[in-house]
C-alpha cells in the first residue's frame, strides 16, 4: 500500500514561533526512507516552500498559498497530467486560484472605499514584515514574493469588507497568525484531491494522511483517509466544524513527530 502524507507547515512541521524544522528532521528522514511522499499544503508561497523542501531534501509535489496552485516536479508522474498546466522552472503547475495582482487591486479599492486601515505584504518593507511575523529578513522577502494571495498583517477589517471581496470572487481565510485573501476557487481540499487522483493513476492502493493545526487546514483534513490535528501552543486542538480529526498530544512539531510514528508503525 502506498502512503501519502499531506502537511501544513506553520505550527505543525515547523515551530509556530521560530519557524524551525529541527524537531521534525528525524521523522522526515523516516518518511523518506519508507518511500512516503511528504507533500506540503500551506499558506506559504512557492519561494518559502522551496526553501524548506531544499533544506529537508524533499522532492515531492507541493501546494502553495492555501490551495491556489499545485507545483509538480517535471517527470514526477509517469503519465501525463490530465489538467491544464503551465511550466515554470522545473515544475508543471496546476493553477486553481487567481493572480495576486487581481487580488491586490480589489483590496486596494475596498480599503479606500470603506475607509479601512489594514496593511498587507505589498505595503510593507521586509524589515517591518520581519518584525510583525518573527521571520528573519530572508524569510520575510520570500513571504513577500506572492503569486496567488495576499495576507493582512495588521489593521482592522469589517463585515462590509468581507461582503465586498466575496462579491469580487475572493474569500478570506484565518491562519495561525494572520488572515489571507485568495480566490474562491482556491481550495486546499481540492488541491489535495487532485494530487491523490494523480497518485492513484500510478498506484493501485493508497492510504492518505494529513496533519494540521488550525481551521485553515479543515479542507485538507477532510480530503484524506486519516486526518490529524496537533496541539496549539495553548494546549488545545482547533475546533473544526466539518471534519473529525484525531487530536494528537504534542504542540506543533512534537505532535507532528508522533503522527509520523503512528503512520509508519
From TrEMBL:
Q: Which CDD domains match?
A: HAD_Pase
EC class (word): hydrolase
**Source organism's superkingdom?**
Bacteria
Write down the Pfam families for this protein, in alphabetical order: Hydrolase_3
> EC?
3.1.3.70
Q: Which UniProt keywords apply?
A: Hydrolase, Magnesium, Metal-binding
Per the record, GO CC terms? Answer: cytosol
Q: Which Gene3D superfamilies match?
A: HAD superfamily/HAD-like, Putative mannosyl-3-phosphoglycerate phosphatase, domain 2
The record's Gene Ontology biological-process terms are: mannosylglycerate biosynthetic process
Gene Ontology molecular function: magnesium ion binding; mannosyl-3-phosphoglycerate phosphatase activity
Q: What is this protein called?
A: Mannosyl-3-phosphoglycerate phosphatase
Query: Native species of this protein?
Result: Roseivirga pacifica
